[in-house]
Amino acid sequence: MRVKILQHKEQKEDIIKRCEICNVSMVDENNQPYVLPFNFAYADDTLYLHSAPEGRKIDILEKNPHICASFSTDHQLYHQNEGVACSYSMRYRSVLLYGKVEFIDDLEEKEAILNKIMAQYTDKKGFSYSLPALKNVKIFRIPVDKLDGRTFGY
User: The CATH number of the domain where 65 resides is what?
Assistant: First the structure.
């Protein structure tokens, strides 16, 4: 088996939409990596995230908005010889998404994005949000600059 590079956007988007979380990497002012898991939504070549309105990630992203998000699914351990450790490997499907964070302040847009995020995890449409809740959430929009997709063992 070998790694297969995914060429079609639809294949990559299918992987993204089947994931429960994405891991988002960023680089701080000391050139140190920082990675966090996020709930997300993905639509129209854009990744959407939300978080508390302040903290280390916000400080980092305000100074350097470039991110890489990792999506991975369909993990399955397999082996060629049960007694040989080096014959074990993991099947997977994965995508790396590159982009630049844009913070959203408009309350109506925040609500629309939160509904997209909720749609990733529920079948319900149209949630309600209090004004304090909308004001106290940081919303990130990341238009896709590049998507790389790979599979191994499929």
Answer: 2.30.110.10
- Considering its fold, how many domains does the chain have in total? 1
Cα distances (angstroms) measured from residue 31 to each of 28, 60, 63, 118, 145:
5, 10, 11, 33, 21
Residues 68 and 97: their CA atoms lie apart, in Å, by 6
Is the whole model's pTM more than 0.85, yes or no? yes
- pLDDT tens-digit map of 104-113: 999 999 999 9
To 5 degrees, how large is the angle CA 126–CA 132–CA 135?
Answer: 85
Cα–Cα dist 110/53, whole Å: 13
Domain that holds residue 21: 3-152
| Cβ atoms of 138 and 103 closer than 8 Å | yes
